[in-house]
Every structure is written in structure tokens, then in C-alpha cells.
Amino acid sequence: MPRRPILLVLASALVSACFTAPSPVDRPRVVTEAGYLRSREMMVPVDGVRPEDLTDTFNARRSGGRTHNALDVMARRGTPVIAADAGVIRRISTNPLGGNTVYVVDHARRFVHYYAHLDRYARGLREGMEVRKGDLLGTVGTTGNAPANAPHLHYQLLRYKDARLWWTGDPVNPLPYLKTRGNQR
Predict the structure, then answer these.
(1) CB 185, CB 82: distance < 8 Å
(2) 99 has which bridge partners?
(3) How many whole angstroms separate alpha carbon 126 and alpha carbon 52?
(4) Tens digit of pLDDT for each residue in 28-66?
(5) In this structure, is the dihedral angle defined by the CA atoms of residues 63, 65, 66 and 71, taken in order, positive or negative?
(6) What does the alpha-carbon distance between residue 151 and residue 78 come to, in Å, rounded to a whole number?
(7) 90 near 103, Cβ under 8 Å?
């Protein structure tokens, strides 16, 4: 068969492919918030703690009529606090309520992971640093307003709002999405 008809058929197929609608399989899928979080298979952010060991403290009442909006993971002081999911460290800071804190924004910029009451930060931890699931962030403690006799990690999951107010998003209960035992890398 001569080359010209083959080239003509190939060119016609290429042009046709460019102007036809993609099949349903090729269309990008919109993933719901819950679907996205389930797909992450997040890790309990304290080394050695299993999902079934957790108590849901998300709706617990706090002083001043506040709702907790976070999960408290009880553990011995000094237990490693690890990244629940991969992301970028956006802020390392200290404040009166959370004490020593770390904020990690996931790579898709859908969620902010907030780790508070840390006793210490991991050596070499810095803002802008990428972390993987299970990377060491610090250790469990009682800094900030945590009771001195109740070391724990205050772990909060927030919707990423926008680039200017990324830390102010609405809280989401992380408990249903913590699927694997805390395991430091």
C-alpha cells in the first residue's frame, strides 16, 4: 500500500480525535471533600496510636461556650508527633492557646493540618519544608492551654480557604479519615 493513503488516514484520525468530545472515562472527575479525604488514607498523627484507640472530641464543649472542633490524641509526653498526610509546612509558631504549633498545607491546597501543644519541634523542621506521611514534626506535650497533667496532641483539620487566609478555614472532623496506625518514618 502506498505511503500517502496511510498518512492521509492517520492525519484524518488525528484531526477527528482533536474535535470529538472526550469519553466519560477521559473527563476529569470531581472528587468530593469526603472522597478526597478517604483517598488520602491519613495516618493517626501520634506514633503507635491506632485509629480504634481514638476518642471523638470534635464536638466537645470548651470554656467560653466554644466547641473543640479538633481531635485530642492522648499520649505520653515526648511521644513522636508525625505528619498525618503529605504537604508543606506553612507555619511553625507559638501561641497562648496551642502552645508550640505546626501548620501543614496538603499539596492539593484543600486542607490545613494543625498540630498543637507540642513539647518540642523536630530537629531541622522549618517553614516551606515538604513532609511525607509519617515524618516527625515534634513530640507530644502540654504547651499552651493544655493541662499540665494531660499531655496530648491537639490535631485539627481545616478546609483551605485561600492564599491570604489559609489558616481560617472551617474545621472538619478528622476522625473518620484517620485510617492507619501512627508510624514514624
Answers:
(1) yes
(2) 95
(3) 32
(4) 566 899 999 999 999 999 999 999 999 999 988 877 788
(5) positive
(6) 9
(7) yes
Q: Is 28 helix (H, G, I), strand (E, B) or coil?
A: coil
Mean residue pLDDT of the chain comes to: 87
**Strands, E, within 38-96: which ranges?**
42-43, 71-74, 80-82, 87-95
Torsion sign, CA atoms 107, 122, 140, 67 = negative
CA–CA distance, 100 with 88 (Å, rounded to integer):
17
Cβ-based neighbours of 111, under 8 Å, separated by 6 or more: 37, 85, 105, 157, 158, 159, 160, 169, 172
Q: 113-149 burial string, b = 16+ CB within 10 Å, else e?
A: bbbbbbbbbbeebeeeeebebbbbbbbbbbbbebeee
Residue closest to 42 by CA, chosen among 95, 99, 106: 106
